[in-house]
Hints:
Strand content: 25-35%
Radius of gyration: 26 Å
Number of helices: 10
Strand order of the largest sheet: 1-2-4-5-6-8-7
Oligomer: single chain
Number of domains: 4
Amino acid sequence: MAATAAVPTPPATVTDLPTVYVTLTDLPAKDSLSFIHANKDVPVASQVDVADGTTTQTLACTTLPTDVAPLGVGCPTIKGHGNFTWTLDKKSYQLKFDKKTAILGMLPGKTWILIANRADPSLMRNKATLELARQFGMVATPESRFVDLVVNGQDLGSYLLTDKVTVTKFDPTKPDSHVALTSPQGVLVEMDSHFGAAEPIHFTTARSRSIFTLKDSYVGFKNDPGVVLDADTQAGWDDVQSTINTLEGLLYARNPDWTKISALIDVDSFVKYYFVSEFVENPDVALSSVFFYKDGPTDKLHAGPVWDYDISLGNYATTNRGGNPTEDYVKNELLTIKGNGPFDWWTQLFRNQAFAAQANATYATLKPFVNDVPSTIDGYQTQLLQSAAHNFVVWPNILGQTSVIAFNGGHSPITSTWAAEVALLRSWAAQRASYLAHAYGANVPVLRYSAHVQNIGWQPTVSTGQMTGTTGRSLRAEAIKITDTNTTTTGSVVGNAHVQNIGWMGYQAPGAVIGTVGRSLRMEAIQLKLTGNLATRYTISYRVHVQNIGWMGWVSNGATAGTTGRSLRLEALQIRIVRK
Length: 580
């Protein structure tokens, strides 16, 4: 961290953005950043001044003197925030007030997070994703503002001030940006297979072995070791565990019952959460920071609120962590990161034709917001111009250096200028929006297909863009069957397979088996094409996973995927259909 010019005092600001000044007042031993950095979870009493250049909002102790307030009772407090990000040099912090407080025009909240965005050299991935979720109408999307941060006179650079994901009691007379519940047994939970096992209250699902933690409730509880929940919160926690285990039993069934699944979940929230995660290709969607809530036993399970997107939107270079803007990402387990268990609910949901069809229909209403993300990024670039320039003076070890996420595939080295990082983000977002615009929409067909695999037989049917077959198991794919296209557009999908000892078998009729069954013969290559008006309006693309090669490139409209003359088995494939 570099020394900077003399830090101003309120109401002056560091740059043209508002400045949050935090003065530690818990004397004499807890009044330094070094104490906070050594004691992440210990809140320190403070005074918070929010300056906008002309006025100052002062938030100070209200019930006890600043020098005797135990753990900040009655005072604003600051403490550390984050897991992996807490290990970095530029750290995130949590501010907490003794009552709900409105800051910088945002709705009142008691707990606020100052996000450092250390892993995101653009400084705007979190903000852009939260704004997209808000435009989608996602419930309780945290509000946020770009600010500069000064703690005890130390300039810490550019931050994102955002409301924390928490629960409140529903009050129809008061607008609220939190999860507003009406049932005393309402709860908020987080799927956190990365860090959840260390939380005092957590459980592991019976089927996927994913870890869920209890984060908040209508009644409220102190999330400390040995905590005993009140009767209502315990009942709500028991109920949501039962709901999640029942849901997983249905999701992973060979023939999932959509009527029962849709009776358990708020489908609209799951569709919108999917498109937030799919657009930004968030690798954490299989790992952590995935929230759900349930407003008592009679309510459905809702997906959201959204949270934590600093490593998304192409911040990784590798495909499995979201680096490729033209992939079907969240719906494919093979393209996600597994935690303690393979949390792949959206992979399973897309096996249901009704969910895939609703996703297509919903995207027609969401597409304008997604298409506008590059323009949103342009606006943030203008807004952050001074603050970003100042941030990289305060933190000169970021631009042009190795990324802090390079160890597992983060794009690295970081470019030498902030403008170049923003340009990379904008380009990636534009490519991603273009791909989704062609892949989803009210009239886009939903393909349904299944592979017949050595030692397994017919696998469960999957939907457009998903993988069928196996990888890493050395099993041959022997046949594929495409059962329907779920569209009123005339035409069909026909396919041709190159099979061991046979060669090309010729194009088969729509819905027929492509390849062989019961003869222990490997498919070595395939060709797929559309007929009728489907061929006029759409492109069918496909790729295959081949013995000794791995995933080969995408081909389209009758081209050969796989190999001939090399005796190599097909092991898996993906098929997708997009607008021309």
